[in-house]
Amino acid sequence: MLSIHSVSSLDLVSKWMGESEKLVSNLFQMARDNAPSIIFIDEIDSLCGQQGEGNESEASRHIKTELLVQMQGVGSDDQKVLVLAATNTPYALDQVHLGDTPHNLTESDFEHLAHKTEGFSGSDIAVCVKDVLFEPVRQTRDAKFFKKNSSDMWVPCEPTERGVV
């Protein structure tokens, strides 16, 4: 029988040192003991904001670390535990790895990318974004021919194009 463990992020926070980590560990252990299980964490954004935020406390870093440790192997067939999380700020999650990088992606572009990257971790997506962002640098580095564009900037081009240098 499927076991469901539903908690709010506030249920996992304690003012006592080390208690939050114990609460997270106990939640995952209970889910493993009662597998197959689903762990649902509401308001995950308040518990796990972006790393490196200026207002991130030492306690918050410890909770994030414990969550990541406990999630190792979750979702594999031998553990039979699934973690679902909800956020009140999905708009903050869409562009986490783009940062302030200018782009003209639409909502449907993000949906298409989400389908193409199903199963990717946040780290996998960060690598993809960085790879795409550096593509112009690689093209410029490897280019042998250049021409001026409409902004009067030199850009890589094919040797057969007009105005090639």
From TrEMBL:
Domain ATPase AAA-type core, first and last residues per copy = 4-95
- Which example biological process does GO assign this protein? vacuole organization
MF terms (GO), sorted A to Z: ATP binding; ATP hydrolysis activity
**What is the designated name of this protein?**
ATPase AAA-type core domain-containing protein
Which ranges carry the AAA ATPase AAA+ lid domain?
109-143
Q: What PANTHER family does the record tag this protein with?
A: AAA DOMAIN-CONTAINING, PROTEIN SUPPRESSOR OF K(+) TRANSPORT GROWTH DEFECT 1
Which source organism does the UniProt entry give?
Answer: Quercus lobata (Valley oak)
Q: Which Gene3D superfamilies match?
A: 1.10.8.60, P-loop containing nucleotide triphosphate hydrolases
